[in-house]
Fold this sequence. Notes:
With 128 residues, the protein is mostly helical. The protein has helices at 7-21, 28-35, 39-55, 75-92, 96-121.
Amino acid sequence: MQDIETIEDIKVLVDEFYNKVRQDDLLKDIFNNVIQNRWKIHLEKMYRFWQTVLLEEHTYYGSPFQPHAKLPVNKEHFERWKKLFNETIDENFLGEKSEEAKWRAGKMAEMFLSKINYYNENKNTPIL
Length: 128
């Protein structure tokens, strides 16, 4: 196995990961209800996001938290998301960037959950 080094590697990661998400009993309805028939657009956005984060090729513009701010998710959902993400990496890649991807995904999930919990507990509306 090789490390994550190119946009083609990013596409493998994203496509394989979201194939798992779309079949997962806990996550599939949440994602499908939000994304609906716009999967191609979503996947393209995820390619750009991870290309920017891991390959330092700045192609993603936006705020990644905003689309997640009002999702009906909790710790269990984020744990499953991380599990599937890490499994996908471990099945396809090996190396420093692969480990960085898992670390960054974990930190992102932690931050998103913390913000979602804050908004839910304080009955605040996220700044979008």
